[in-house]
Design brief:
The chain is built from six helices and 15 strands. The strands form three sheets. Strands 2-3-1-15-7-10-11-12 form an eight-stranded mixed sheet.
């Protein structure tokens, strides 16, 4: 084998290693994204490479709000603030239909952020999957993380032979290759959602929010003075951190080994 050919092969191998190392931290590695929307907002690609489509309920059901743009959102990179700054809420129960065409294991990731209320026990609601499974009960976003802080819920489920299984419980038959996630109106204000996506894979492979720090709950988030934002409150009174250093170490060692070898061979 000629030095030129060997040099070309080594360069190609380094490119593959670099792509692989980049892949570890992006959505392509966590599974196939089958559905992603930025509720109440426009299309957006997040820091993990997930592409969120514009809210399909725009102008149809509920109210789109960008009141959260007054806040710097805690626990997420600057690029992803927009996912938690826009939302859809409704004065009644509402939901989204999610297209699913193949059997397998899935994870539904629901993204929330409280930007209107200053205390707990004011916005409280349930989330139901496929009409049968209460996947989140009495969700009080402020009580969990405070104001202006991101909170994600990770819901693993399985599709098999036309039926959905959650916590080993079977739901009614799936019709039209679609399942439905609903945000249930209770006795405490309006249900809401900021963003969501469904990935085909296991929950362990889904990127998680940074750990919640105590001071994030106790301190008021920084508020940006912007006028004419629509709040998510009533119209009238009525998210462990994956430590991937051990995963990345072999990649860095391999790259560090091949680069000097490549230069030596190419100079011969």
């Amino acid at each position: 084998m000629s030095r030129y050919r060997l040099c070309t092969i080594l360069k190609a191998l380094i490119v593959v290693l670099l792509i692989f190392s980049s892949c570890i931290n992006h959505a392509v590695c966590m599974g196939q994204i089958v559905y992603a929307i930025n509720c109440g907002g426009e299309a957006h690609t997040d820091s993990d490479g997930v592409y969120y489509e514009r809210d399909p309920l725009h102008g149809k059901i509920g109210t789109a709000s960008d009141y959260g743009k007054r806040f710097h959102i805690g626990r997420v990179p600057q690029n992803d603030h927009v996912l938690y700054q826009t939302e859809r809420y409704h004065t009644n129960t509402f939901g989204y239909d999610i297209p699913l065409y193949t059997d397998g294991e899935y994870v539904l990731v629901l993204k929330f952020c409280e930007v209107y209320f200053n205390g707990p026990d004011q916005k409280v609601f349930d989330v139901v999957l496929n009409g049968d499974h209460v996947i989140i009960s009495d969700l009080d976003i402020f009580d969990k993380v405070g104001r202006g802080v991101a909170h994600d819920e990770y819901v693993p489920f399985k599709i098999s032979k036309g039926k959905l299984y959650y916590n080993e419980e079977e739901s009614s038959e799936i019709r039209g290759n679609r399942i439905r996630v609903e945000f249930i109106k209770g006795y405490k204000d309006n249900p809401k959602i900021n963003a969501m996506y469904v990935v085909k894979g296991k929950v362990d492979s889904v990127p998680k929010l940074a750990p919640l720090e105590v001071e994030q709950v106790e301190e008021e988030p920084e508020i940006i003075p912007i006028k004419n934002r629509r709040p998510s409150g009533p119209k009238q009174p009525d998210p462990y951190e994956i430590d991937d250093s051990s995963t990345m170490l072999p990649v860095f060692i391999a790259i560090g080994t091949f680069i000097p070898l490549l230069f030596c061979l190419c100079r011969l």
